[in-house]
Design goal:
mainly beta, nine-stranded antiparallel sheet, 13 strands
């Protein structure tokens, strides 16, 4: 009986060693520039000022993230600043959990919307979720966005990926970027691309060079946009 019990214990230990629990990556956030893709939920606002985020074939904008700890507070806080807010605008901030749940770190409520300096544009961001796995350590997020501008508010779904990779096609003669998407730049195996992400090349707000719109690799599906 003792021999059988010992054999069971040894077998269980061996099985555990062969199938260890994956180590937690915590709740990291990759910093600086992300590629955020917008999907307009309120299509009735497509022609309104608050529908501008998906107007004229533009479906994305650069977002910036920072993570920090307030003095005397061990809990982490993150700040998010969409590009159109500008450096003089006020970022949105919110608490970040220490550990993920089911491979995601959720921040359902942010303290205040991101606002430009003139307070004419606001981004009320909520239900933020970051992927937190070894394959995607804080490098993709999903969120809800209520964007207010020109006296109206429109709701969007947002999916962001990091790093923000330009994917403009090149002029075959000069090699300069042109107003055209190069989908191969976003395919698995392309430089700096997370091969586990499902990405597509879309037009973003801003220019890559004078007169040429910026294209970036962005999520191809709703969050999580993975293969």
């Amino acid at each position: 009986m003792k021999k059988n019990l010992l054999a069971i214990i040894v077998a269980a230990a061996a099985l555990s060693a062969c199938n260890p629990e994956p180590a937690s990556v915590g709740c990291p956030i990759q910093l600086i520039t992300w590629a955020a893709k917008y999907t307009l939920v309120d299509t009735s606002h497509s022609a309104d000022p608050c529908g501008v985020l998906t107007a004229s074939g533009v479906n994305g904008e650069s977002w910036g993230f920072q993570r920090y700890n307030k003095p005397g507070d061990p809990a982490s806080t993150f700040a998010v600043r969409p590009a159109s807010i500008g450096r003089t605008g006020i970022p949105a901030t919110g608490p970040l959990p220490d550990e993920p749940s089911n491979g995601q770190c959720a921040a359902p409520t942010l303290t205040a919307p991101a606002t430009n300096a003139a307070a004419t544009v606001t981004y009320a961001i909520s239900n933020v979720k970051f992927l937190a796995t070894a394959e995607a350590p804080g490098s993709q997020f999903g969120a809800d966005l209520a964007y207010t501008a020109g006296g109206c508010t429109a709701n969007y779904k947002v999916v962001g990926v990091w790093p923000a990779i330009a994917c403009n096609a090149s002029d075959p003669t000069t090699g300069d970027p042109i107003d055209q998407a190069d989908q191969t730049a976003c395919a698995p195996g392309a430089p700096d691309i997370n091969s586990g992400f499902n990405l597509t090349c879309i037009k973003f707000a801003g220019s890559i060079i004078s007169g040429v719109p910026l294209y970036r690799c962005a999520a191809a599906t709703d969050f999580p946009s993975v293969r």
